[in-house]
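Moderator note: this is an archived Q&A kept for reference. The question asked for a predicted structure of one protein chain; the sequence and the answer are reproduced below.
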Amino acid sequence: MFTGIVEERGEIVDRHDLGDSVRLTVRGPLTTSDARAGDSIAVNGCCLTVVSPGSDNFQADVMRESLDRTSLGALAPGATVNLERAVLATARMGGHLVQGHVDGTATLLSRTPSEHWEVLVFALPAGLERYVASKGSIAVDGVSLTVVEVGDIGGSPSFTVSLIPTTLAATTLGELPVGAGVNIEVDVIAKYVERLLAPASTPRSAS
């Protein structure tokens, strides 16, 4: 479990193709300072398991399912990523409950700078808009953000967020170009509410 508060910006230093998966080597001195094999670290919002920790980096395997459903498949050596260690039970919940289970990828449609913040508009994958609410929480590349508004651009669902200078400087979102893809995780509470409100299936009688 994570909070969406990025601890540092790391770097992909190696990518090794294993056929049906990829082994990534990620540099992040802070996040790996106490990392052990089996620990969870979120890379751009994707929960990865540490396979082999190093002095300032760690290796993690990314299976085909994750490569196909997230932006991790496009990462190459030199790419900058957001890193966060799994939250401790005694830590403050600075963001919101983030599982590290990506629901889909969104595309940055525009960014509008102002004096003290920047407004970013993302296109949502079809079907995810029902889980996104104005003033609700959403994780974008592992960054916990508050949704300003949910809209519709050119017949496609979209959402808007406003980023303060700290977020722009401390995460990859500050340098994200228009047209780039990001990992999206909607608020898990919305998914559970939908599941609970769905009509219950009738159990089959034993024969």
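Archived answer notes: The chain has a mean pLDDT of 92.
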